Amino acid sequence: IVVTGSDDHLWKMWALPDGNIIMTGEGHTDWLSGCCFHPSGTQLVTSSGDTTVRLWDLSKRACVLTLAEHTQAVWDCSWHSCGDFVASASMDNTSKIWDVNSEKCKYTMCGHKDSVNSIEFLPFSNIVLTSSADKTLSLWDAR
Fold first, then answer.
1. Which is nearest to 86 in space by CA: 142, 48, 31, 12?
2. What are the start and end residues of each WD repeat (predicted)?
């Protein structure tokens, strides 16, 4: 199974190797830039040009949470290995750590001088790696 996001504002889940579409998610109002499965495989997080990050419950086939504190397009998103936190990277020069249980931003990471283009939790740690259009990489302690 693979998930893709597109300029058509949709994400699609595909079965491999036959390429059949299993599920489609709609709700974003602009292009999708990132998709990431929850560690358990039961949820999906997506990022979009509409400045939001959305969490999708795959069994309900629906968006269950919209995180909307970025002020510009969100380029990327990532789940923490525990499944309780999501990280997002934005054109607004910030990245954020979201607590999905409280549905709030836990921490905003400022320091890049240009768009933050990618974000990833290092496996089984609280360290976050970001890359930016300012031509730097940063490691952050998300605790």
1. 142
2. 25-66, 67-108, 109-143
Q: Is 33-141 a domain of CATH 3.40.50.1360? A: no
Helices (H) and strands (E) in the chain, counts: 0, 14
Residue 143's pLDDT is what?
84
In one-letter notation, the amino acid at residue 73 is A
What span, in angstroms and rounded, lies between the C-alpha atoms of 23 and 8?
A: 15
Which residue type, as a one-letter code, is found at position 123? Answer: P
* Residue 60: DSSP 8-state: T
- Give all strands (DSSP E) within 9-61, no chain letters: 10-14, 21-26, 32-37, 43-48, 53-57
Confirm whether pTM is higher than 0.90.
Answer: yes
Residue 44 contacts by C-beta under 8 Å, 6 or more apart in sequence? 3, 11, 25, 35, 36, 37, 38, 55, 56, 58
What pLDDT score does 110 carry? 97
Average of per-residue pLDDT values in the chain: 96
**What letter does residue 19 receive in the DSSP assignment?**
-
Q: Which two tokens stand for residue 33?
A: 């830039």
Q: CB–CB of 55/44 below 8 Å?
A: yes
Compute the average pLDDT of residues 79-94.
Answer: 97
The structural domains of the chain, with segments of one domain joined by +, span 33-141
